[in-house]
């Protein structure tokens, strides 16, 4: 399970507060995962454990799923703050 040390921190990277950056963030994370899987070729067990964790996080809408924004979860309060969006 040595290869999981490069995959699990991906789940901990927070989603940006600005909704305009969510698409860029999801594209970056998707390309990072694709390039990691093609270059490092992790073992099957590590890949399945990571995909199961990613599926559970995104399916439950708990945490920060970088693939999409859950429709029932509200936006962060700071997302509507002009001082945060302007930075």
TrEMBL record:
The keyword Protein biosynthesis does not apply. SMART domains: BC10. GO terms for biological process: apoptotic nuclear changes. The keyword Membrane applies. GO terms for cellular component: membrane. InterPro entries: BCALP (IPR009598). Pfam families: BC10. Keywords: Membrane, Transmembrane, Transmembrane helix. Belongs to the BLCAP family. Interacts with RB1 (phosphorylated and unphosphorylated). Interacts with STAT3; the interaction is promoted by cell stimulation with IL6 and phosphorylation of STAT3. Acts as a tumor suppressor; induces growth arrest at G(1)/S checkpoint and apoptosis via RB1-dependent and p53/TP53- and NF-kappa-B-independent mechanisms. Modulates expression of genes involved in the regulation of proliferation, cell cycle and apoptosis. This is Apoptosis inducing factor BLCAP.
């Amino acid at each position: 399970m040595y290869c999981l040390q490069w995959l699990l921190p991906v789940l901990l990277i927070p989603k940006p507060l600005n909704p305009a950056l969510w698409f860029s963030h999801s594209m970056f994370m998707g390309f990072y995962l694709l390039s990691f899987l093609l270059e490092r070729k992790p073992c099957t067990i590590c890949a399945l454990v990571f995909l199961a964790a990613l599926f559970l996080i995104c399916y439950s809408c708990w945490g920060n799923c970088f693939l999409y924004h859950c429709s029932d979860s509200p936006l962060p309060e700071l997302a509507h703050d002009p001082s945060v969006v302007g930075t």
